[in-house]
Write a structure and sequence with these properties.
Helix content: 25-40%
Shape: globular
Distance between the termini: 83 Å
Strand content: 15-25%
CATH architecture of the largest domain: 3-Layer(aba) Sandwich
Strand order of the largest sheet: 15-13-11-10-16-21-25-26
Radius of gyration: 23 Å
CATH superfamily of the largest domain: Acetyl-CoA hydrolase/transferase C-terminal domain
CATH class of the largest domain: Alpha Beta
CATH topology of the largest domain: Glutaconate Coenzyme A-transferase
Number of strands: 26
Structural class: alpha/beta
Length: 444
């Protein structure tokens, strides 16, 4: 049977597709922009027919209806490996569970711990050879395909065909059902304009980047500011080996700053495992041989990433304590995002020859009531999750400067971190450091 005939034989309605889910099943959703946003509402409509169905997602765009539709959680129990804003809303209502993980370990976790189940993912249209491309979310999708009891794809003709790399597609022979969708555009992440503080932080980051550096950026105003400054800099031959590809990389590429010529391998390729951004980013990635979609156990593998010299990792944090413990995923006990690949790249950057793992944060945070508090704190907020342990924290940057904590004593760390705290908070931090026995210990 030719692939087009096989395609036609497997096309079903969305109602027919979700009808394969039975009580007690596990259902694994695609990730990020390739979450099955077309099929999810159809599955949610079956709430009263089903019991004890566990659904697993990753950064679901908007609200996963299987989570929102069932306040009892008797019918659907929704879980997320990394929170989106919608996942966070559900979690705050007790309707979403978080699964802690190191992103680079995702494929191995799936192989060893994830039970087989129904897999639903969004894909690009099938190519002439029978492959459905995973588009902007390679991640650990291929490992879920191997665990599928039923493999269901929802086809979106707006999804770019993202070249690999590795493990970037599934063949029709491994697909059980095909659903043709309403072809709405992929979810876009609005550009967050950098604030003056973001720009000040980015200026300090720029001082640590050299010609030939290989750049990993996270998402948000600060990474956007770094990307914009790099695009307008006179730096040469920057490379990309990252977890998430964002719009800033296009700016650097089009400015001629990012060539990838000096990378140890994958020269000339922007290597990533998923992309989130604007339509401009998705259009850029379509059939573009300058970018390579790879599975996360390649992009975030510490031994792979660190083989590039001058790997510079730039990520955000929520708070850091005077010992150098970094919290990037919770505000106290309230879960915000997830560990993601931050620890993977902090580790890889330090192992890289000339590499730098950078944690960025504004010196102050403002509450909903307008109260301003220091992000550099004596100890992490009660219940705050340690994303990067103090033993692995490298560079920390605020708008007041950059400090290198590696090889420093607890007393030296406290002094360095207080030096980049907001001036209005330094006296209180010094008092706390004295009480904790980590202030100018050599003065006794």
């Amino acid at each position: 049977m030719g692939v087009m005939n096989e395609y036609q034989s497997k096309v079903v309605s969305p109602e027919e597709a979700v009808n394969v889910v039975k009580s007690g099943d596990k259902v694994h959703y695609g990730h990020f922009a390739m979450s099955p946003t077309f099929l999810d509402p159809y599955l949610a409509k079956r709430r009263d027919e089903l019991q004890d169905v566990k659904v697993y997602g990753v950064t679901y765009p908007g609200l996963a209806q299987v989570g929102a539709c069932d306040e009892t959680r008797d019918h659907f129990m929704y879980h997320s490996w990394h929170f989106s804003g919608g996942d966070r809303i559900l979690h705050d209502k007790g309707l979403c569970n978080y699964i802690p993980m190191l992103y680079q370990e995702g494929p191995e976790l799936i192989r060893r711990y994830v039970e087989p189940g129904v897999v639903m993912i969004k894909v690009a249209p099938m190519d002439d050879h029978g492959y459905f491309n995973f588009s902007v979310s390679n991640s650990d999708t291929y490992c879920f395909v191997k665990k599928a009891t039923k493999m269901i794809v929802e086809v979106c003709d707006k999804a770019p065909y993202c070249l690999g790399g590795n493990n970037e597609a599934v063949h029709i022979s491994d697909v059980d059902m095909i659903v043709e969708t309403d072809n709405k555009p992929l979810i876009q992440v609005p550009f967050i304009p950098p604030s003056d503080v973001d720009k000040a932080v980015a200026a300090h980051v720029m001082e640590l980047i050299e010609d030939g550096s290989v750049i990993q950026l996270g998402i948000g105003g600060m990474p956007n500011a770094v990307g914009a400054m790099l695009a307008h800099s006179d730096l040469k031959d920057l490379g990309c080996h990252t977890e998430v590809l964002v719009d800033s990389y296009i700016d650097m590429f089009e400015a001629g700053v990012m060539t990838g010529r000096r990378k140890a391998f994958d020269q000339g390729k922007m290597v990533y495992t998923f992309a989130l951004g604007s339509q401009r980013l998705y259009d850029f990635l379509h059939m573009n041989r300058s970018a390579a979609s790879c599975s996360v156990d390649y992009t975030n593998n510490v031994n792979v990433a660190s083989a590039h010299d001058k790997l510079v990792s730039v990520n955000n944090a929520i708070e850091i304590d005077l010992y150098g413990q970094v919290c990037s995923e919770s505000s106290g006990i309230r879960h915000i995002t997830g560990t993601g690949g931050q620890l993977d790249f902090i580790n890889a950057a330090f192992k890289s020859e000339g590499g730098k793992g950078i944690v960025c944060l504004s010196s102050l945070k403002e509450s909903k009531t307008g109260e301003k508090k220091s992000r550099i704190v004596p100890t992490l907020s009660p219940g705050g999750i340690v994303t990067v342990p103090r033993t692995m924290t490298h560079y920390v940057i605020t708008e007041y400067g950059a400090v290198d904590l590696k090889g420093k004593s607890t007393c030296e760390r406290a002094e360095l971190l207080i030096s980049i705290a907001h001036p209005d908070t330094r006296d209180e931090l010094i008092k706390a450091a004295e009480q904790q026995g980590i202030w100018r210990c050599n003065k006794h």
